[in-house]
Design goal:
ABC transporter involved in vitamin B12 uptake, BtuC, 16 helices, disordered N terminus, disordered C terminus, transmembrane, transmembrane helix, LivM-like, ABC_transp_permease, cell membrane
């Protein structure tokens, strides 16, 4: 491709309303404040709520960020991400049980497995789009569910994988107490979120947005759309794998639920609830759903799905861009920083990224 064509492609991608703004967070005081608030919230979370619930929020937040990277910026809705969350959970658990590795290493092994699994699935799936892409990913996830369920000698089948240790280089406080485990796992969560942010705010991320908005034009400019989609699919799977591995080890148990289609549906709900294409919205959605489910379960209420489903319907009807996306758009309107983008499904206010 010639240099003028590359320049034109970059300009087309950057001119998209959803293109990531240039520059680091330090160029905006508001962004620095937002980042600082997020870090403070992450640090104080186990002090204000039950530490295992805080760990669940962190894991689901990273899982939702991973899906938002695929859905919000590549325009691909996956109903099979439970395969990467759950597959990594089983591999991390088995690694910790049989090899006795510290949990950060076990989680990384699980994430590598998730990425290796995602590569062939992505190669076959990205040739389709819309509901067809979603159904293909769901089919692959159900295949993994069947394998895990039938391979009882390794995975425990319906009984799950039990007694997963949270080894951490012999530090007993981390290995035995959920409070300290949260802080030991937090750098991996933050690192995963930083990676997602870096992908979005890079030339690669701008091309992703271009392939989402107009794949035909991106191809005409010389970009291999399928290759970009496979790459972001693998990155998304790796981040989901980190989240799934941490979730499994923090609970000391891996169940079939981790590879079930309901898990894929839950992370989609979290992402849409917070706001597609915002990253921050995934975190907000995880906080809302995990705390809501915990409170309902603690009260003995059995119809948790009814409540969470009702909340989802209300948000979809009243907040077109999700909770975070709607708030970010309202702030942008009031400050006059940029006009609101009327495209459905892309919450792209600068304050929301």
């Amino acid at each position: 491709m010639s240099a003028p064509t590359q320049t034109t492609a970059r300009g087309a991608a950057a001119s998209s309303p959803d293109a990531a703004p240039r520059g680091f967070l330090g160029r905006s005081t508001r962004r620095w404040l937002l980042l600082a608030a997020g870090l403070v919230l992450a640090l104080v979370l186990p002090w204000v709520i039950y530490p295992p619930v805080a760990m669940d929020i962190a894991a689901w937040a990273l899982f939702a960020v991973a899906l938002d990277l695929l859905l919000g910026y590549a325009g691909l809705l996956s109903f099979g991400h439970a395969a990467f969350w759950g597959g990594s959970a089983y591999v991390a658990g088995l690694t910790a049980v049989h090899w006795g590795l510290p949990f950060p290493l076990a989680v990384l092994v699980g994430a590598v497995f998730a990425m290796a699994l995602a590569w062939p699935i992505g190669m076959l799936s990205v040739r389709r789009s819309g509901i067809y892409f979603a159904m293909v990913t769901l089919a692959f996830a159900q295949m993994l569910f069947f394998v895990v369920n039938q391979w009882r000698g390794l995975t425990g089948g319906e009984n799950g994988l039990q007694g997963v240790p949270a080894g951490f280089f012999g530090v007993e406080a981390v290995e035995r107490e959920a409070f300290w485990f949260y802080y030991a796992a937090l750098p991996m969560i933050i690192g995963g979120m930083w990676l997602a942010w870096r992908v979005v705010h890079s030339p690669f991320g701008r091309v992703l947005v271009a392939t989402r908005d107009n794949p035909a034009r991106a191809r005409a400019l010389g970009y291999d759309v399928d290759r970009y989609r496979v790459m972001v699919f693998v990155i998304s799977a790796g981040l989901a794998g980190v989240a799934g591995g941490l979730f499994a080890i923090s609970h000391g148990f891996v169940s079939l639920q981790e590879v079930a289609w309901q898990t894929s549906g839950k992370v989609v709900l979290i992402t849409v609830l917070g706001g597609i294409g915002t990253l921050w919205g995934a975190i907000v959605g995880a906080v809302v759903i995990v705390i809501l489910e915990d409170q309902l379960a603690s009260s003995g209420f059995d119809g948790i799905g009814i409540i969470t489903g009702s909340v989802f319907i209300i948000v979809v009807l009243l907040f077109r861009r999700g909770v975070w996306g709607t708030v970010a758009d309202a702030v942008a309107r009031r400050t006059g920083r940029r006009p609101a983008d009327e495209a459905v499904g892309a919450a792209d206010g600068e304050d929301g990224r």
